[in-house]
Amino acid sequence: MLNLNHKKLDVYAASLALVKEIYGLTSSFPADEKFGLISQLRRASISVPSNIAVGSSRKTLKERIRFYQISRSSLVEIDTQIEIALVLEYLNKSDIKQLTELTNKVFAMLTNMMKT
Length: 116
Fold this sequence. Notes:
By secondary structure, this protein is mainly alpha-helical. The protein contains four helices and no strands.
């Protein structure tokens, strides 16, 4: 594996924890959601650290910020999909406590990175 700077970022580590949390939560979803909500949530979660990594490798601040914006947008997508999972009663509020903390943390960290 490459020894790149993004791997040293706290936001990257937190986003990987977010991926793990999403995979854990979606493992209990009904099998018929395999190509629906499970796939969407997992793909959106993977998008967060992926765009952090790509953004970190860009040369200009404008390019970096654009990828951090995409990463943050994926967090909004996750939030919406979790709301849907709550409505469908695949999850309850107590199930998403850790996820809520992680998404808020990563969102705030990305926001701060975009200010620099």
